[in-house]
Design brief:
This protein has a two-stranded antiparallel sheet. The radius of gyration is 17 Å and the shape is elongated. The chain has 4 helices and 2 strands. The longest helix is centred in the middle third of the chain and has 18 residues. The protein is of the alpha+beta class and 111 residues long. It has a single domain, classed as Ribosomal Protein S7 (Orthogonal Bundle), CATH 1.10.455.10. It starts with 13 loop residues before the first helix and ends in an 8-residue tail after the last helix. One of its GO terms (molecular function) is rRNA binding. This is SSU ribosomal protein S7p (S5e). Keywords: Ribonucleoprotein, Ribosomal protein, RNA-binding, rRNA-binding. Belongs to the universal ribosomal protein uS7 family.
């Protein structure tokens, strides 16, 4: 549980922090490859709610696992706290996906 993690910056309501972290990391759009006329296009598409949530969980866990040298509970808690504040590596992943979708907006009509 998040309450057991010793972090002076930790919010008091851990469940609210968890929900805020997931909401912040959820992507609204993603790019998918679509082959048209022998050329692959990165087509931006909306992400349904269930996939948004699964991607958010996946990214937070992946970024926590990447960090070495500390217990997974501590790394996961730190990544969740950072995501709740709108920071952290999982947020960077989301922003990168959104930037890619924005850059390929011209191909949205292929969706």
């Amino acid at each position: 549980r998040l309450e057991k993690i010793d972090n002076p910056e930790a919010p008091k309501d851990s469940l609210e922090c968890f929900h805020r972290a997931i909401e912040n990391v959820k992507p609204h759009v993603e790019v998918r490859s679509k082959r048209i006329g022998g050329t692959n296009y990165q087509v931006p598409m909306q992400v349904n709610r269930r996939r948004q949530q699964s991607l958010a969980f996946r990214w937070i866990i992946k970024e926590a696992r990447k960090e070495k040298g500390r217990p997974i509970a501590q790394k996961l808690a730190d990544e969740l706290f950072a995501a709740a504040r709108g920071e952290g590596k999982a947020m960077n992943t989301r922003e990168q996906i959104h930037r890619m979708a924005e850059a390929n907006r011209a191909f949205a009509h292929f969706a």
